[in-house]
Amino acid sequence: xxxxxxxxxxxxxxxxxxxxxxxxxxxxxxxxxxxxxxxxxxxxxxxxxxxxxxxxxxxxxxxxxxxxxxxxxxxxxxxxxxxxxxxxxxxxxxxxxxxxxxxxxxxxxxxxxxxxxxxxxxxxxxxxxxxxxxxxxxxxxxxxxxxxxxxxxxxxxxxxxxxxxxxxxxxxxxxxxxxxxxxxxxxxxxxxxxxxxxxxxxxxxxxxxxxxxxxxxxxxxxxxxxxxxxxxxxxxxxxxxxxxxxxxxxxxxxxxxxxxxxxxxxxxxxxxxxxxxxxxxxxxxxxxxxxxxxxxxxxxxxxxxxxxxxxxxxxxxxxxxxxx
Length: 324
Ligand code: NDP
Hints:
This protein is α/β, with parallel strands linked by helices. About 35% of the residues lie in helices and about 25% in strands.
């Protein structure tokens, strides 16, 4: 069988995760990592290549996995890279996905390439769970809870507070909200009613802790609407207990079937490393893109468009025999 030849664009958390995930998939091979930085500055095992040599790899790479950030990297890089390669990315700015899809679709169609956008866990596997729930239980409600998870944006907001030396923020589902959803009552719950926020903060030596705590808890948009806890710790504890990037969550569909019988679907993820898990999803979808590209397909796709059997290295016959 043919080996799928992969390239990585951008070597941050996700890029590192993809490099590791490819090793768990014997039908794939990582050819090169492309970066905007000085290649020798990357601490990677695979050869690192400056971005401007991309075109030299057209014949050597089947699928490029884009690992740049969603806010500014991906919107620019996907249009450039899809001129020459089939791509997979994890664009996660939910509100902008329709517009992103349209642009990538035009680019990929006119260059005869195939681009799968916005995969990962949310958007990604959670999107599939929401789709299945809505189709199977047309009378019902969806609920998505996130956490326990480290939120990059909220951690940055905490670190910008005066007197804060360092800190992290976790988002957690509120147990009573989970219980209410599981009761089948289909409550109306805002994001703030479903989640609490917990901050671990290292303060400057001379800082007034009560002022820091109050500034965080009353911060508009980020914390003011939420149940927020602030814990002060030292630098050593932060390093030891809060350096990982856990995440996860639960997608629910809670509804009724014809007689009014209550039916509930739960799809949950508990992730010790958000970037490594997201990377594992990207790699499985790269297999699907390789297969669809060999069939001559082009344009943009999302996870909602891909037959799930295409994610597997196993034959359809084997899947029927072992999974059904
Ligand atoms: P990073 O900030 O770690 O990396 C983004 C880019 O920044 C890299 O591609 C790299 O490009 C550059 N970079 C990384 N480290 C450095 C450094 N030390 N100095 C300078 N530049 C650096 O982001 P993540 O990998 O954590 O996440 C990427 C995106 O993945 C996120 O923006 C998020 O939107 C998305 N995501 C999606 C999920 C989903 O479920 N769909 C889940 C998790 C994340 P280069 O090598 O070219 O410099």
